[in-house]
Specification:
The chain has about 350 residues and is mainly alpha-helical. It is built from 17 helices and four strands. It is about 55% helix and about 5% strand.
C-alpha cells in the first residue's frame, strides 16, 4: 500500500475536487481548442514589470499551459487532499491562498536575484498553480509519518510517501525555470507552516467568505461517501478472496462501532475506547482462514508501544491517549493506526 492519504476518493474534500476539475478542464480546452487564448494565461514577467499587467499574475499562476504539468500537479493535489480532511476546507484554502501570494512575491524576488548574481534574464516562467503545490510538500514532509512498505534490491526502502516525492521530482524536471517556482513554493510553505511573522493570521480566508463558498460551491463539488465494496483482481485465489471478504466484514463492523462510540462520546464526553474497535478477531491465524473466534485465553498480551511512533501521531495533531490506544489496537502498526485516525 503506497498511499498515505487515507481512503480513496474526494469525500470531504470539495476544494481539492474543484482544483482538480476546473483548472484541468481549462488547460485541456486551451491546448486542444483555444490555442489563440493561451497568450492570456502565460506567466509573462516582462509584461508584468514593464507594462504593469498585474492580471497576468492571477491568470499565469492558476492555469497550466503544459499538459504534463497539469497531470502531475493534479495527481499531487489528489494526494494532498488529506490536509483538507484534516484541517477543514477553510484552513486548507487559507494555506493555499497564503502560499500562492507568498510564492508570487518570491518568484519576482528570485528572478531579480538570478539576474543580478548570475546575469540570467528570465522573461517568463512556467504557468500554473505550481507554487502552492510545491508548498504543500512542507506539511507533507513534517506531518505525515514515513512508513516503509517494501525494499528494492534489499537496500532501497520504498515508503508510503515515495510515489508523491517521485511525482514532485517529475514536476520539478518538466521545465527549465520551474526550479524557481519550486523554491519559492517551498519557502512560502515553510513561512506559512512555521507561522513566521504571523502570516497565517494575515493571509487567511475570512469566515464570511468561507460560508459563502460553502453555501454556493460546496454542494457542486462535494462527493458522496465511498462505498465499502472490495474489488477482487482477476486470477485471485479462493484464499485471497476469502481474506478480502473477512477484512471487509471487519471494516464494516468497525465502522458501525465507531458511529456508536461517537454518539456515546457526544452525549457523555470522554475518549473513544479504541480497543473495542479492534477485537481479538484480528489476531486470528491466516494459514487456512478458519472461521472461528479465539478464546480469551489465547488473546495476546497488550503490545508495547514505541514512543517514537506515539510522537509521530502526536505531531499530526492527535492526542497521546488516542495515539496509544490506536497503536495498541492495531498491533503497533503505524500505517494502520495513522490511516484509521486520519479517516475518523
Amino acid at each position: 500500500m503506497f498511499t498515505s492519504t487515507g481512503s480513496n476518493g474526494l469525500y470531504k474534500a470539495p476544494l481539492s475536487k474543484s482544483l482538480l476539475l476546473v483548472p484541468s478542464a481549462i488547460s485541456i480546452l486551451l491546448t486542444l481548442l483555444f490555442q489563440h487564448y493561451q497568450k492570456f494565461f502565460a506567466y509573462n514577467l516582462q509584461a508584468i514589470k514593464e507594462d504593469f499587467q498585474i492580471w497576468r499574475i492571477v491568470c499565469g499562476r492558476t492555469i497550466c499551459l503544459d499538459l504534463k504539468d497539469t497531470f502531475c500537479s493534479s495527481l499531487l493535489i489528489y494526494n494532498f487532499r488529506i490536509f483538507e480532511r484534516r484541517y477543514g476546507s477553510r484552513k486548507f484554502s487559507s494555506f493555499l491562498l497564503g502560499a500562492w501570494m507568498l510564492s508570487a512575491l518570491f518568484d519576482l524576488l528570485l528572478v531579480e536575484i538570478a539576474e543580478y548574481v548570475f546575469g540570467i534574464t528570465i522573461n517568463s516562467l512556467p504557468s500554473g498553480f505550481l507554487g502552492p503545490v510545491f508548498a504543500l510538500f512542507v506539511p507533507f514532509y513534517s506531518s505525515i509519518p514515513r512508513v516503509q512498505v517494501t525494499q528494492v534490491l534489499g537496500h532501497f526502502s520504498i515508503t508510503n510517501k515515495t510515489l508523491v516525492y517521485i511525482l514532485g521530482l517529475q514536476l520539478l524536471t518538466s521545465g527549465s525555470y520551474i526550479w524557481i517556482l519550486a523554491l519559492s513554493g517551498l519557502v512560502s510553505g515553510i513561512c506559512y507552516n512555521s507561522s513566521i511573522l504571523k502570516v497565517h493570521r494575515i493571509l487567511c480566508v475570512p469566515s464570511w467568505v468561507a460560508k459563502i463558498f460553502s453555501w454556493t460551491l460546496e454542494p457542486i463539488f462535494s462527493s458522496a461517501e465511498p462505498t465499502n465494496e472490495v474489488r477482487v483482481g482477476m486470477g485471485a485465489t479462493v484464499d485471497i478472496q476469502r481474506q478480502q471478504r473477512m477484512e471487509l466484514l471487519d471494516r464494516q463492523i468497525m465502522m458501525s462501532q465507531v458511529a456508536q462510540m461517537r454518539r456515546q462520546r457526544q452525549q457523555q464526553g470522554g475518549m473513544i475506547n479504541w480497543n473495542r474497535l479492534f477485537p481479538p478477531l484480528r489476531h486470528r491465524h491466516n494459514a487456512n482462514y478458519q472461521d472461528h473466534r479465539p478464546s480469551e485465553q489465547d488473546t495476546p498480551p497488550p503490545t508495547e508501544v514505541s514512543e517514537e511512533q506515539v510522537a509521530r501521531l502526536m505531531e499530526m495533531g492527535f492526542s497521546r491517549g488516542d495515539a496509544l490506544e490506536a497503536l495498541r489496537a492495531s498491533n503497533n502498526d503505524l500505517n494502520v493506526a495513522t490511516n484509521f485516525l486520519l479517516q475518523h
